[in-house]
Design goal:
The structure holds two protein chains of two kinds.
Chain A (H helix, E strand, L loop, with lengths): L1 H15 L10 E6 L14 H7 L8 E3 L5 E3 L2 E6 L5 E6 L13 H12 L14 E8 L2 E6 L6 H4 L26 E7 L3 E6 L12 E6 L6 H6 L5 E2 L7 H4 L5 E16 L9 H10 L2 H9 L4 E2 L22 H10 L6 E7 L3 H15 L3 E7 L2 H10 L5 E6 L20 H11 L4 H17 L4 E13 L2 E2 L16 E2 L2
Parallel strand pairs in A: 1-10, 14-15, 14-16
Antiparallel strand pairs in A: 2-3, 4-5, 5-7, 6-7, 8-9, 9-10, 11-17, 12-16, 12-17, 13-17, 18-19
Helix pairs in contact in A: 7-9, 8-10, 12-13
Chain B lengths: L1 H28 L4 H6 L5 H11 L5 H13 L13 H36 L4 H15 L2 H15 L15 H35 L2 H8 L4 H12 L1 H17 L2 H6 L5 H10 L3 H29 L1 H6 L1
Helix pairs in contact in B: 1-14, 5-6, 5-8, 5-11, 6-8, 7-8, 8-11, 11-14, 13-14
Classes of the chains: A alpha+beta, B mainly alpha.
């Protein structure tokens, strides 16, 4: 006993000498939970890729701003033909890739053609489906012709999967990403951290930070000590359960924003008895969203009534459509001929919202006579059994893609939902670019989903950011999964 | 000795072949498609199929097994699906963390455990013994991640002597790298030391009851000399066995500590590869670990012969 105290004391003394002072004010260490599998945003669905590279290293024709708005990026302006099919982009000139090669219209054509090619493994290939041809008019002008008008085309071009890459470096971006952004890639210590440094010849407003390190911290238990010790100065995606430990500490800022993650109780709409509208509605009445948010997300997160973020400009509040009403739920089950209740399974992927939320939902559904067997699954299993093979009754998952209400109209999607009226609204939406009309159509779409009680709409996943109180410019909301550092700086 | 070694070698090879079959079969049965996992929920079935072809996942099972084991024989461990770099490079990077960590932890654990065990055994039943064995009991019972968190709060948050976690890499210098391994090594070492101290104590007590100890004492050797020269050496066999087991555990079973300190070690590589269905990484790393465990066991067996000359002559 005495011995190890002596050893510790010796360690303390010898370490004291090697302690460094505070980091310089142009340095930033950001904690991220998952390591990207590789560093090419055009070749994978993992959100962690965009969380490091989007807007920092890679840029697109357009980009998504902090509140989900479409902003010009490499394209300084554009014109749209009257029939909505031809987009002519005017590009910034004098732009260079980090390896010194010039950026021009040919790179745009290369990137878009590469993403939509037959052998492309771009994870969001659907974004490029409407493109018919891409033509280089001159080095600073590119013309994109669509097969049909597409209301969301400019937004689509702002995704991380649509960033512009150079033919010289496209094949090696996975290991050594070369983009046009204000930061360039410096190093990747696998399993540990990825370091970006300021690019000297950036075409736009240069970044304030000289160096940004993304450190991979997989365990939420390590977040608080890392902040308190000053090792890491920002966690843009913090853990809900640990918020209480830092929220009253003046050294840190806790910022609760919105994501595009609609957290839902997915229902297999073709599997009896869930094919009956009354049964799905009964489930919606049986859910007490407040209790779920309190239990699964530490009380953070806004309830939703359909598949749309409350932060979205086209959001319609439908949370009152199915108030928590056990009697009504039982009555609907009786109408469906299931007054004695029934048994079903609930498959839960690993995130906390699913595992904790699942237990609460199981107890709420038990109150109306639905007896759920909880089956925890890994992500790989979930994608295989639930998402691909549709072998499930109920599951909980957060759909984090932005503006993804169209998934309910996809053929063969895992909800097994099929409503021609809804499909028509989405088809109309696809060819409408008028803002007012889009708003109306999106409103209709939300209402149809709520009326059909396609799934149990729970809440919008919150974006919980915790960072040093002197740090400015990190995003409050997460309209896309990104850590845009272009405007981040230290105060003082 | 040669016959003994040859026999051990044959057993080791048979174990490796069997392990390769089990590992391959288990990962094949495991549900989950690496291609779908990489492309996410928005990709079409055709695209997933395309990627599966590119990754060589659609080849027949037997061919893939032979291809993999054939590669292993020529020391080619394949390429990671997710990282698309050779598996051996990943392992080398991770071993740069895991191996020093395991060695430091093992050294700390031995340095703590043997003196404590000696102290306890020589003071059997007295206050000192009760206290140190009580502490050891606590060390066995308290989970190492809790130790880890307490160490972080004291040494990283409060005293700010070492980083709370992370690994700067050996390229950042020996001292910064070592510094980041100290707390995790200590957190790993304490519970191991507790076990080892108890084993040392009971082995010593058993030996101290032997007739030859009484004889040694009777012929006038001082107690201290008997303890060090006669008792400790004879008590080493169970201690070495435990040490061997602990080293194998420390090499790959440290995933919890690696997570708490966010260290890029071997345990986390395997864990991450399993969740991402990076099958080739799991398969190859597990095989390497099997080989390492077999090698350590062999070393332990040989070390018995070093501490106990009787075992040497018997062969």
């Amino acid at each position: 006993m005495k011995l190890w105290i002596t050893i510790l004391a010796a360690a303390v003394l010898s370490l004291a000498a090697g302690t460094s002072a505070f980091a310089a004010r142009t340095d930033l260490v950001i904690g991220i939970p998952l390591e990207p599998p590789h560093l090419d945003p055009t070749a994978g669905a993992a959100a962690a890729i965009d969380e490091v590279l989007y807007a920092n290293v890679f840029e697109g024709l357009t980009r998504i701003g902090p509140n989900g708005e479409v902003l010009p990026d490499l394209a300084e302006s554009w014109t749209i033909s009257d029939d909505g099919k031809v987009y002519t982009f005017k590009l910034h000139t004098g732009v260079k890739f980090h390896d010194g090669t010039d950026f021009d219209a040919a790179d745009v054509k290369f990137s878009l053609d590469r993403a939509r090619a037959d052998n492309s493994v771009n994870a969001q290939k659907v974004l490029f489906a409407a493109i018919d041809t891409v033509d280089v008019v001159d080095p600073a002008t590119v013309k994109v012709t669509l097969k049909n008008p597409q209301g969301s085309f400019l937004y689509n071009m702002g995704w991380g999967d649509a960033v512009i890459v150079a033919p010289e470096s496209a094949d090696t971006n996975k290991e050594k990403p070369i983009g046009t952004g204000p930061f360039k890639f410096q190093s990747w210590a696998k399993g540990s951290s990825i370091t970006l440094v300021k690019s000297d010849n950036y075409w736009g407003t240069p970044a304030s930070l000289d160096k940004a390190e993304f450190r991979i911290v997989p365990d939420a238990a390590a977040y608080v000590p890392a902040l308190l010790s000053g090792d890491i100065q920002a966690f843009p995606f913090f853990d809900a359960d640990s918020v209480a430990q830092v929220k009253d500490d003046p050294r840190f800022k806790v910022v609760i924003g919105a994501t595009e993650g609609e957290t839902i109780l997915s229902i297999n709409n073709k599997k009896p008895p869930f094919d009956k509208l009354q049964v799905r509605q009964a489930i919606s009445y049986a859910l007490d969203r407040k209790a779920i948010i309190d239990g699964a997300s530490a009380g953070l997160g806004q309830p939703i009534g359909s598949h749309m973020s409350p932060a979205n400009k086209d959001y319609v509040d439908l949370t009152g459509r199915y108030p928590h009403d056990v009697a009504k739920a039982k009555e609907l089950l009786k109408e469906a001929g299931l007054e004695n209740g029934f048994k079903a399974t609930l498959k839960l992927p690993p995130p906390t919202y699913a595992r904790l939320g699942g237990e609460i939902i199981a107890s709420q559904l038990r109150d109306v006579g639905i007896d759920l067997e909880i089956i925890p699954v890994e992500w790989a299993q979930w994608l295989d059994q639930v998402f691909t093979k549709k072998d499930y009754d109920l599951t909980i998952v957060s759909h984090t893609e932005p503006n993804d209400i169209d998934i309910y109209s996809r053929k063969d999607y895992y909800f097994n939902y099929d409503n021609p009226a809804f499909d028509k609204v989405i088809a109309d939406l696809g060819v409408t670019s008028d803002e007012a009309k889009r708003k109306e159509l999106l409103g209709q779409a939300q209402k149809i989903l709520a009326d059909d009680a396609v799934v149990g709409f729970l809440y919008e996943l919150p974006k919980i950011g915790v960072w040093d109180a002197n740090l400015q410019g990190l995003w409050e909301n997460a309209p896309i999964q990104a850590n845009d550092l272009t405007k981040v700086k230290w105060s003082e | 000795m040669t016959a003994y070694l040859l026999k051990r070698l044959a057993i080791a090879i048979a174990t490796l072949v069997l392990a390769s079959m089990v590992v391959f079969a288990v990962l094949e049965i495991l549900p989950g498609d690496p291609a779908r996992l990489m492309l996410g929920m928005n990709a079409s079935a055709d695209q997933v199929e395309l990627l599966r072809n590119q990754m060589g996942l659609n080849a027949p099972l037997a061919w893939r097994y032979l291809h993999w084991t054939g590669g292993l024989l020529s020391l080619d461990f394949g390429r990671s699906y997710t990282y698309s770099v050779p598996v051996i490079d990943l392992v080398r990077e991770r071993l740069a963390v895991s191996l020093p960590l395991a060695l430091i932890a093992l050294a700390l654990s031995t340095l703590i455990a043997i003196p404590v065990g000696l102290f306890s055994a020589s003071r059997r039943g007295r206050a000192g013994d009760t206290i140190s064995m009580g502490a050891a009991q606590l060390g066995v019972a308290v989970p190492n991640f809790w130790f880890a968190l307490m160490l972080i709060y004291v040494f990283a948050v409060w005293l700010r002597l070492v980083p709370a976690g992370g690994f700067p890499g050996w390229s950042a210098g020996v001292w910064p790298a070592l510094k980041s391994l100290l707390l995790p090594a200590l957190a790993l070492a304490l519970p191991q030391a507790a076990i080892l101290a108890r084993v040392t104590r009971s082995a010593l007590i058993e030996v101290l009851n032997e007739d030859y100890i009484r004889t040694a004492r009777a012929k006038g050797l001082p107690y201290r000399a008997v303890l060090w020269r006669h008792a400790l050496r004879n008590a080493m066999i169970p201690v070495l066995t435990i040490l061997g087991l602990q080293f194998a555990f420390l090499l790959a079973g440290t995933i919890i500590i690696e997570n708490v300190f966010y260290l890029p070690g071997l345990g986390r590589l395997v864990f991450q590869a399993i969740t991402q269905r990076d099958l080739i990484v799991v398969e190859s790393v597990v095989m390497l670990l099997v080989a390492a465990v077999i090698a350590v066991n062999l070393l332990v067996d040989l070390s018995y012969a070093v501490v106990d000359p009787r075992l040497r002559s018997r062969q």
